[in-house]
Amino acid sequence: MAKRFLLYAVLTLGAFVSLFPYLLVVLTAFKTQAQLSTTAPWLPGLPPTTANLAEMLAGDFPRYVLNTVVMTALLTAGQLLFTTFAAYAFARLRFRGRDVLFWLYVATMMVPSAVTMIPLFLIMRELDLVNTWYGLLVPYLLGSPYGIFLMRQFFKTLPAGLEEAARIDGAGPMTILLRVMLPLCRPALGTLAIITVISSWNSFLWPLIITSGDDTRVITVAIATLKSGIGVDYHLMMAGSLIALVPMVAVFIFFQKHIVRSVVLTGLK
Fold it and tell me: Which of 119, 143, 154, 233 could be a cystine partner for 188, CB 3.0 to 4.6 Å?
């Protein structure tokens, strides 16, 4: 009983530490600017106010939310499409230099993303794609090393007999991929989709560098712009953060089984 009590105490403490920042976001979002200086951060403002949320929703913030939804949907669709084709080629098709090319591509995961930001920006500038949807999406639309690695490892776990039987029946590589392999890859595709949705929704550095107008501004950049040289509107910033947090909480609630499965599958790495 003592060990069990200690275990639950540690788990409770860990859960509190993990949830405390989100609690501060919720509490601060419902405080007025005057209550920020008169109330402790971990205490609610009385009476709570919804003026911060109303002010954010009355401006251009809904447009930024829509931009983020569009960006996340397109990046997720592109990742699932191109990553699946590339992973199938690396896992099942035979061509000269396949393994060398694959491991060279996977090795790029060791390169910090900040290192490639400036070259990517220079390429987008030469192509006149700065502050456009093409510049925002293209560098991350055609797959990622981690996604290709994940899908390739999953393809390699599937029995080769299924593919051979389909080939005997006259099926080509595309038919085998679409009708035989993909229906068996739903767990891996769900894992990749969840990872891509979360990373795309929280993306900040690249959208900050490549976009500057309202037509392409995403929610993370919009929240950062609330900090000016004069001061920080913490109550508005936390209201925007709360709006940005709600979709991710909904994703977790509705897809928690797939998220748990994704944690298991990412152990393939």
Answer: 154
